[in-house]
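queue> holo job accepted (calcium ion)
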Amino acid sequence: MNKILIAEDESAIANLIRTALDGPDYRCGVAADGLAACDLLEAEPFDLVLLDIMLPGADGYEVLDYCRALEVPVIFLTAKGTVEDRVKGLRLGAEDYITKPFELMELLARVETVLRRCGKTGRVLSLPPDIQIDTAGRTVRRGGVPVALTAKEYELLLLFVQNKNVALYRDRIYEKVWGESYLGDSRTVDLHIQRMRKKLGLEGRLVAVYKVGYRLEV
Ligand code: CA
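queue> job finished
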């Protein structure tokens, strides 16, 4: 079950989307202006925001900033369909962009894809050949055998699996996993990564990148 916030001031469209999504897989909240959307995001956790750009209160670009701070993925949903608008939305960090009018089937497919890509579905993520991560149960198995990871080790693993083959900077890793600003002490990050890597037998694949941080090679 994923929670989706629909930030849309045209109630007909908001209702249409809500009706299409509500069910066993999704539960929706609706906000008719940007400020109400931010209030809802602050009040309860959402897995995804379908965000109209032209919103009263605070516009979609402003709400996007807020979503990014909370690390909630965003799909822009808007009548602004020029290439410039699309590029601006994606540059600012939206995961996807849907232009109105749209087909509900397309919307559903994109919602599913973004949730999966962002590790928000209850599905099992796998890291071949032998590691499975059940993001709903927060459990990790290696060759079918459960591996006990600390909360930080689990978050680190998820971060690398969601960023395969990307060199991640230590400061970004620290800020993502510890939720605080990085003050330059690399030992905390290094220690946790080394322990996680050893538990999962990733020594040859989760490699140090000189002067940067680490990269999971797949
Ligand atoms: Ca609007």
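queue> Helices lie at 11-21, 34-43, 60-70, 83-91, 104-117, 151-161, 170-178, 186-200.
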